[in-house]
Amino acid sequence: MKISEEEVKHIAQLAKLSFTEKEIIEFTKKFGHIVQFFNPANESETEYELMDIEMVKEKNEYRKDIVLSENNQEKLFRNTKNMENGLIKIPKIIEDE
After folding, report:
1. Integer Cα distance of 91 and 75 in angstroms
2. Which helix (H) or strand (E) holds 18?
3. CA–CA gap between residue 8 and residue 23 (Å, rounded)
4. What pTM value is reported for the model?
5. Ramachandran region of residue 25, left (φ > 0), alpha (ψ -120 to 50) or beta?
6. N or C: where does the chain have the smaller number of CB atoms within 10 Å of the terminal CB?
């Protein structure tokens, strides 16, 4: 299967990308190499056999949720480095403008 420049332009349009004509020619060649690489997989002879799948009649066994009233913050947050007023304090990620 050969990739055309129109197909590359269509892919670029779908991806909302714009390319120069030189870039389109370059991508056409690169996509062509990729398709050629995977082409032997399409040409190989494979036989598909229909297999009967017997449904196994098993039930999912769910564990029961057990509510524990234990809520020991010291135990829960013992590996936390920075705590303030019962909350985990983390470094600032977004800078102020």
Report:
1. 23
2. none
3. 10
4. 0.41
5. alpha
6. C
Q: 51-95, pLDDT tens digit by residue?
A: 555 566 677 788 888 887 777 777 888 888 888 887 888 888 887
Structural domain boundaries of the chain? 5-43
Q: Pick from 82, 87, 3: which is nearest to 37 by CA? A: 3
Q: Is CATH 1.10.20 correct for 5-43?
A: yes
Of 17 and 68, more confident: 17
- For the record, the structure tokens of 32 come out as 């062509």
The residues, ordered by sequence, that sit 6+ positions from 7 with a Cβ below 8 Å of its Cβ are: 28, 31
Nearest residue to 1 (alpha-carbon basis) of 21, 31, 25 = 31
- C-alpha separations of 87 from 1, 52, 74, 84 in Å: 59, 56, 12, 5
